[in-house]
Design a protein that fits this description.
This protein has helices at about 25-35, 70-90, 100-120, 140-145, 165, 170-180, 190-205, 230-240, 240-255, 275-285, 310-330, 345-355, 370-375, 410-420, 425-440, 445-455, 475-485; strands at about 5-10, 40-45, 55-60, 65-70, 130, 150-155, 185, 210, 215, 220-225, 260-265, 295-300, 335-340, 355-360, 385-390, 400-405. The chain has about 475 residues and is α/β, with parallel strands linked by helices.
Length: about 475
């Protein structure tokens, strides 16, 4: 079997399948690496005074990881800089927060070159290479410069921005041109793929786009919408474990008969938590009958605390949560529980199962697996209601959620009102349809689909085989229209 080489910014060493502290993505990728005797390469998360290219090898649960340490300047310019202060806000439609610094772009290019130089001796001509996410867009091109001809794929876990925003990046054409070095490009949903195709059509008029394939110069690149999933069966089982039951019963006791509304997000301005808080406040204001009858729990572990915009959003949420509790709380009821810490997946699954409604309302999100986890954790006989942003990739699959505009407090409040009063039979019907999707297109479906496409040859010119499958092969005109309307 062809060996798989996975490359990502950070590496998640396996701790054994089914472990509570390991996510579904890491489990699935670890399983594929184990089956192919592959390696997982990336940054260790540590820094070193001088970059030497020394590779730290480790083997755990049958998976080999290979990591490198980066210099402080690399971390500042490549990771904290270009990745998190330029590309992340840009890819989430926040050009107001994007910082365009030449040294950031220089550090990004330098680290991708160093990754290519360090990875080169580790791969053989037969290896299959799979690069992940926006941190490493140029890596495929850097490997091609070093005469690597292996089948190489790239998967973007974030949204792809609309063309008019992406062109604000000074090096946008160079960045996208680097993507043409890959054999397969994967996007989380059709909307993000359409945005990419529209940009290519607009900025690279020489490109020929048809049937899910881009031909430009001597390169032929297949593109596909391939939504990532979760291990639905495993997550559903985790929600009924003793640990999950303990978490569920503990939180139900603390609610004293009140309904629970729940949100779980990494602390990030793209997650729409500020707007969500305003929506909840609007519910309590417009429907005072819910006061002292509901509690909203928002779990938001901090992230990227060295970046100023993340410090700003934490201050804003601290102030807003205090304001809401100050306005509506009573001596016996705190309407909003805002928690800046994380919980393991067993505890989370139990909490999900106890929630009458979940607010998953990012302003922009590549997929959002919390939405799928919430669905998988529900009791089939008494499921909760998913309230989901139209601007999350998951909305394309989970059409039976209550889809909302996350920027509108009134719409959020209306959805909460509908969820809290929704009859049991409607809740069960909506949940069943969503669970069918979550189970069918799970993490293993995603893994197999991407790798099958990566190992297959490109369709010949004029082939309609790709177009017939889930509409990834939308022609240029249709893709442009879809992207322009999003």
């Amino acid at each position: 079997m062809t060996r798989l080489v996975i490359v990502s910014n950070r590496v998640s060493p396996p701790t054994g399948e089914g472990q509570a502290n390991q996510g579904g993505l890491a489990v699935a990728l670890s399983s594929a690496l184990r089956e192919t005797n592959g390696i997982w390469f990336g940054w260790s998360g540590n820094e070193t005074e001088t970059f030497t290219g020394h590779v730290n090898f480790s083997k755990s649960d049958g998976v080999t990881t290979a990591t490198v340490d980066l210099e402080p300047q690399d971390i500042d310019e490549y990771y904290n800089g270009f990745a998190n202060r330029t590309l992340w806000p840009l890819f989430h439609d926040r050009t107001d927060l994007a910082e365009f610094e030449r040294n950031f772009a220089g550090g990004y290019a330098r680290v991708n070159e160093r990754f290519a130089d360090t990875l080169l001796p580790l791969i053989t001509p037969e290896d299959l290479i799979w690069v992940h996410d926006y941190h490493l867009i140029p890596l495929g091109a850097e490997l091609r410069k070093r005469d690597v001809t292996n089948r190489t794929g790239f998967f973007l876990h974030t949204p792809w921005p609309v063309a008019r925003l992406l062109t604000s990046l000074p090096s946008h054409a160079k960045l996208v041109n680097a993507l043409f070095a890959y054999d397969l490009l994967g996007f989380q949903c059709q909307a993000w793929l359409d945005s990419f195709l529209y940009y290519v059509h607009d900025q690279f008029p020489e490109a020929e786009i048809s049937d899910g394939v881009i031909r430009i110069g001597d390169r032929t690149v297949r593109v596909v919408a391939c939504p990532i999933g979760i291990d639905a069966g495993d997550f559903a089982k985790s929600a009924t474990t003793p640990e999950a039951d303990e978490a569920r019963e503990s939180i139900l006791r603390s609610l004293e008969g009140r309904d629970l509304i729940m949100g779980v997000d990494r602390l990030d301005y793209s997650k729409g938590m500020e707007q969500r808080f305003h929506g909840y406040s609007r519910l309590l204001q417009d429907h005072p009958e819910f006061q002292e009858k509901v509690t909203f729990l928002q779990i938001a572990p901090p992230s990227r605390e060295q970046v100023a915009s993340y410090q700003d959003i934490r201050r804003e949420l601290d102030a807003l949560s205090g304001h809401i509790n100050g306005e509506f709380a009573t001596a016996h009821w705190v309407p909003l529980r805002y928690v800046n810490r994380g919980y393991d997946r067993l505890a989370l699954s139990g909490m999900y199962r106890s929630a009458r409604a979940a607010l998953v309302t990012p302003l922009r999100d590549g997929m959002n697996l919390v939405a799928k986890e919430y669905v998988a954790a529900q009791d089939p006989e008494n499921p909760g209601v998913l309230i989901l942003s139209r601007y999350a990739g998951a909305a394309e699959q989970l059409q039976d959620a209550l889809l909302v505009n996350p920027f509108s407090p009134e719409e959020l409040a209306d959805a909460l009102h509908q969820a809290l009063l929704m009859p049991l039979e409607e809740r069960k019907t909506r949940w069943r349809a969503m669970m069918d999707s979550v189970e069918t297109q799970d993490i293993r479906w995603w893994l197999k689909r991407f790798l099958d496409l990566l190992t297959s040859e490109h369709p010949p010119r004029g082939s309609t085989a790709e177009a017939s499958e889930s509409s990834e092969g939308a022609d240029t005109k249709e893709a442009a229209q879809a992207a322009a309307s999003s």
